[in-house]
Structure formats: C-alpha cells, structure tokens
Design goal:
By secondary structure, the protein is of the alpha+beta class. Helices cover 30% and strands 37% of the residues. It has a single domain (12-161), classed as Aminopeptidase.
Length: 162
C-alpha cells in the first residue's frame, strides 16, 4: 500500500477475535445501532467470558478501528448470537456479511451445530443477512423489543443448522 493510499484509500478490514480492550468501541457501535445500547461494563463482561466468541472487523494498520463486531455464546452443540453491529457509516458494502460468515465458521470450528438468535421484526437489513446465511424462522415473541419512542416490536426467533 502506498503512503497516499494509506491516507486516502478505503479502509481494509480483517476479521479477528476481539477482547475486552475493544469494549469501549463496542459500546459506541452498539449505541449507534440499537435504541438501548449496552455499556462498556456489559461488553467487558461478555468479552472476558470463556463461553463467548467475539469477532471484530478491524482496520489494518497502527491505529486500527472497529468497523463492526459480533458476539455469541457457544455451548456446543448450540450457539446463540448475542449481538451484532456494524458501524452505520460502513453499512451496505458487505462488511456485515463478511463478519457473519467468518463468525459462523468460528462457531462451527468450536463445535456449534445449531445457531440461534432473535432479531426485531422490523430490522429488514438483519433479516436479509440472516436469511442469506441460511437462518430459518422458528418462532416469534410479540412486543419483545422496545423502541426509544415507546413502540414495541416482535422478536423473530431464528435458527441455523450447520
């Protein structure tokens, strides 16, 4: 990479495991993605839990930044995606799909055969990415998620058979 492209080129991301040192960045991205974001302390707890697999899309270089992350609890043969967020400025370019694909590989390598998650019924982007990855709807919880304006939305329960 030339010096100019390192200053002006598009950021290149690698998918790698992340730990508690990324808790503050996770808090920021989560807060930008959800009405009720998790705290830095929440992320520190998850990112130090031995049953949690955490992957991040990290820019290459000395001052790496987090463009997205995904956390799952893995208790083979099951895994549950706990949360998944991509920086709003980086959405729509395939970063989320790249992150999800690598994360699912890591879960399978860790012994997962079934992966579960819940997603709001109005989160079209998430429903689309999960559908493309092979997740199928297995249930629904009415009035599960609350929006900042007080509106309530159903949770769609999804499962992927690996």
């Amino acid at each position: 990479m030339s010096l100019l492209s390192s200053f002006f080129g598009k950021a290149t991301f690698v998918i790698e495991p992340i730990g508690a040192e990324r808790a503050e960045e996770c808090e920021r991205l989560h807060g930008a993605s959800f009405a009720f974001g998790w705290s830095k302390i929440d992320f520190e707890s998850y990112l130090t839990d031995s049953h949690v697999i955490a992957d991040g899309a990290v820019t290459e270089g000395r001052r790496s930044t987090l463009g997205g992350f995904i956390l799952s609890r893995l208790l083979p043969p099951d895994a549950e995606i706990l949360t998944f967020a991509v920086d709003p400025a980086r959405r729509g370019v395939g970063l989320g799909r790249m992150l999800l694909d690598k994360h699912l590989e890591n879960l399978e390598r860790g012994g997962a055969r079934l992966v579960f998650l819940e997603v709001a019924d109005d989160n079209e982007a998430a429903l689309k990415i999960y559908s493309r990855a092979g997740f199928k709807e297995i249930g629904r919880r009415e009035n599960y998620y609350q929006r900042a304006n007080g509106e309530r939305r159903a949770a769609i329960n999804l499962r992927l058979e690996m």
